[in-house]
Task: inverse folding
């Protein structure tokens, strides 16, 4: 959930992790409440015996406060257990659209085009278990966090020997994470001639220094980044990519029926 006063994006999920396996998921789910200043429809989805995630049917309306409460004291056998609550604020509606064929990222704030940034996406060409891991994944991503400088290495693809020609270790500025498979929107480490012209990355979305810094500055966890144009589909459980499921599919993960 982050800090109580955190300002988040319109796609932000509420993720609850328990310290033990939940045996009666329906009972636990029934004491999890989400209240927002603007009306919304949402549902929980269990992804493991210890983790449940809340997603809205449509994006949160911007500029409102949301309160999550877990009324754990009401569960049978939980006498003495404290209730838990967290607050967050939904900020601006940031929707970014990355077109890997046109090599552009258009960032819309509250429905208006705020900036068009030249980019370079994944070049493809490295097949692992039938998947081209050098391709950027197409689908609806959410921003998961950001760092002013992120250390990026080739270890994600099993390359740790500096003598290997595929090895790399770089300090990358303005890195905004958008998946669990190593994808970021970040400043290109040189190679500026490819931005807006061709796809040359290992899967990340490389941007100009000015564009990457601007995007980093406005980025909130839960902002939407839609990527199109590649043959590699984003899996719904890769990071926070829960919007890859339609509403009917999402609700099937709830322990409460009807």
Result:
């Amino acid at each position: 959930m982050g800090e109580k006063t955190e300002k988040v994006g319109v796609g932000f999920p509420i993720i609850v992790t328990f310290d033990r396996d939940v045996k009666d998921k329906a009972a636990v789910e029934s004491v999890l409440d989400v209240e927002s200043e603007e009306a919304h429809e949402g549902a929980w989805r269990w992804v493991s015996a210890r983790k449940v995630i809340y997603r809205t049917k449509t994006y949160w309306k911007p500029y409102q406060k949301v309160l999550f409460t877990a009324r754990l004291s009401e569960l049978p056998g939980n006498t003495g257990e404290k209730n838990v609550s967290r607050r967050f604020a939904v900020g601006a509606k940031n929707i970014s659209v990355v077109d890997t064929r046109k090599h552009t990222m258009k960032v819309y704030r509250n429905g208006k085009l705020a900036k068009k940034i030249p980019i370079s996406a994944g070049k493809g060409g490295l097949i692992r278990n039938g998947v081209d891991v050098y391709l950027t994944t197409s689908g609806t991503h959410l921003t998961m966090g950001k760092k002013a400088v992120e250390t990026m290495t080739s270890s994600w693809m099993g390359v740790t020997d500096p003598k290997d020609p595929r090895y790399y270790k770089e300090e990358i500025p303005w890195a905004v994470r958008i998946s669990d498979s190593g994808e970021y929107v970040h400043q290109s480490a040189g190679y500026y001639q490819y931005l807006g012209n061709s796809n040359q990355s290992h899967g990340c979305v490389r941007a100009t220094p000015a564009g990457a810094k601007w995007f980093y500055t406005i980025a909130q966890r839960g902002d939407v980044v839609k990527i199109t144009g590649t043959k590699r589909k984003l899996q719904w459980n890769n990071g926070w990519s829960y919007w890859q499921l339609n509403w009917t599919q999402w609700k099937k993960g709830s322990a409460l029926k009807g």
User: Anything to note?
Assistant: The first helix runs from residue 25 to 30. Residues 7-91 form a domain with the Immunoglobulin-like fold (CATH 2.60.40.3710).
